[in-house]
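Title: Comparing notes on inverse folding

I've been comparing how different people in this forum approach sequence design from structure. To keep things fair, I'm posting one structure and asking everyone to reply with a full sequence. Here's the target:
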């Protein structure tokens, strides 16, 4: 047993020592290359994950002063936006009348989101509200 330990841990001469050192450096090089490859793969996964969400702010024609509590406007707007595939979150700012929408750009687009809002009777940026849907809104939701 001592002979085996002696030969693997303590090279008997300088040539064996150099060979052992070269083998160790070769293994170290291989491990470093493997770690770099893993790091590159991981960074690719992270960058793909980061592109799965985008945010859009939409100025909506909301004239109601109680949007979040009103069954006609607040919930109607949210339901309309959530009918689009890929919608993650919808926040309504009552003061600015802006909708902040977080969505997956691989499943929907800002144009589709604006069209969904328009179909329930509200303007969405430069997309005008559907006239028939607008007429179905409660009076509090229409321009006074």
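Reply #1:
Here's my take.
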């Amino acid at each position: 047993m001592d002979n085996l330990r002696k030969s693997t841990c303590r090279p008997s001469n300088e040539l064996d020592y150099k060979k052992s050192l070269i083998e160790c450096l070769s293994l170290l090089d291989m491990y470093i290359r493997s770690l770099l490859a893993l790091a590159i793969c991981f960074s690719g996964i992270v960058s793909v994950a980061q592109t799965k969400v985008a945010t859009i702010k939409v100025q909506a024609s909301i004239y109601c002063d109680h949007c979040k509590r009103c069954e006609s406007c607040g919930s109607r707007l949210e339901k309309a936006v959530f009918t689009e595939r890929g919608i993650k979150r919808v926040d309504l700012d009552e003061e600015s009348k802006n909708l902040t929408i977080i969505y997956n750009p691989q499943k929907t687009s800002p144009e589709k989101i604006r069209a969904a809002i328009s179909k329930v009777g509200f303007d969405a940026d430069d997309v005008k509200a559907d006239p028939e849907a607008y007429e179905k809104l409660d009076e509090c939701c229409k321009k006074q």
